[in-house]
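Researcher: Please translate sequence to structure tokens.
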Amino acid sequence: MLFPCVTLEVVGDSGDGYAKAQNRHNAANALYNLRRLSSRARGDNYTQESFDGTIRFPSATVSQELFTISAHWTALSSASGDVFFYSYLLKCFAVQCISLSEWNEASRWIKNAIEFVVNLTETPIKADLKAIQDNVANPPRPKLLPLLRPSPIPVILPPQPIFILQKALSSLSPLT
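Model: Translation complete:
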């Protein structure tokens, strides 16, 4: 796998089906991690708007029968919130019948796919990594809540004995 993300799956006699399945698996893993990077760096809303629905990952397979170039992207299901991974076959060449001109065309397709994705993803990936680095170096400070003091409990004190004595004395008539 080449960063920022291109895979080339080369298989011997395992057949084209194995190469295709393995290639899609690699692409889904890479897209999953790139999507997580974008989401952690800039938030889910940004990722849904800018990452999903855009080709972010090219890949190629080479088997004894075929040489293929595919494009991969993600989409978010609005109903369930699940992330789906999609692939589209861009170009396919039969290896047994490939001429020099077809080989050059296949080579050009691979170079163009790599250049396309590097140009498309290099800037956002660098921005995402910088945002994460900034968050690690300067984490957001937690909001401090004001100290909550419990309201005072009213205390009813019994009457003071001095007050009772004064009240009793004031009710007596003065001695004459």
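Researcher: Any highlights?
Model: The first strand starts at residue 7 and ends at 10.
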